[in-house]
Amino acid sequence: MANNLLGNTDTMPPHKTDKSRTKAKTEKILNNLEELQNLLYAESRHSILVIIQGMDASGKDGLTRDVFSRMNPQGVNVTSFKEPTQEELSHDFLWRIHRNTPARGMIQIFNRSHYEDVLVTRVHGQIDDHTAKMRMEDINNFERMLVRHNNTHILKFYLHISHKEQLARLDERLSDPRKMWKYNIADFEESKLWDSYMRAYEQVFKSCNEIPWYIIPSDSNWYKSYLVASKLEELLKGLIMKYPGMKKH
Questions:
Q1: Residues contacting residue 184 through CB under 8 Å, at least 6 positions apart
Q2: Above 60 in pLDDT, residue 3?
Q3: So what's the architecture of 21-160+194-238 in CATH?
Q4: Distances from the Cα of 117 to the Cαs of 120, 127, 208, in angstroms?
């Protein structure tokens, strides 16, 4: 993993990062996001697509809860993309994705996404390199279309944990009653393919970076939430939104 993006990105917060201060900053950001999301919904001019990718146990569910749960549920949707159904497999790979993209005024969170179709499928040999390359070109065109034609702003996050931390979290699911429901023996089998997944992710970062990826150090959940919330706040503030006036009848 030397000389590549993941190998050169730490999974822990920078040295001397103060946990208490960072959590206090996050709290302030979350309060701001509550108002900014309300403004986004009221103005109904932009839409936000938040893509969350990461290995099993990287904290995708927890991040969604920690950053988005205070927002008005009328303006936020979450879609988790599991293994495709037979109906979904009978269509092109972006069909199930496109019908879940955000309407104007909405924040849509993808817990896993269209990138699974060039990650899992590639690691397991379900598609060859040529097909993967074509799909990544399709993904670039798809995201470009959302930006161009629906005023969609896309944030793409990869939750970067170490393999050691992943295994510790998977083991915890065997002993913590609150997390046992997440236990899936297949996760341990997937973990054995770590190096193959890292190579596949590196190719995604290289080939699908017109809309940039944010590599989020995620061994510490408090730091992960701070970084993601900060990026979302920065995006929403940059839209220069305003509340619409009273409607004329």
A1: 56
A2: no
A3: 3-Layer(aba) Sandwich (3.40)
A4: 6, 9, 13
**pLDDT at residue 65 tops 70:** yes
Taking the alpha carbons at both ends of the chain, their separation in whole angstroms is 63
Dump pLDDT digits (tens) for 164-196.
999 999 999 888 777 777 778 889 999 999 999
pTM listed for this prediction:
0.94
Backbone angles phi, psi at 54, to 5 degrees: 170, 160
Tokens of 157: 């996050």
Query: From CA 249, how far away is CA 102, in angstroms rounded?
Result: 28
How far is CA 165 from each of CA 3, 12, 129, 141, rounded to the nearest angstrom? 22, 10, 30, 35
The CB density around residue 136, as the number of other CB atoms within 10 Å, is 19
Cα–Cα distance for residue pair 161/55, rounded to 1 Å: 8
Q: What angle do CA 200, 9, 179 make, to 5 degrees?
A: 75
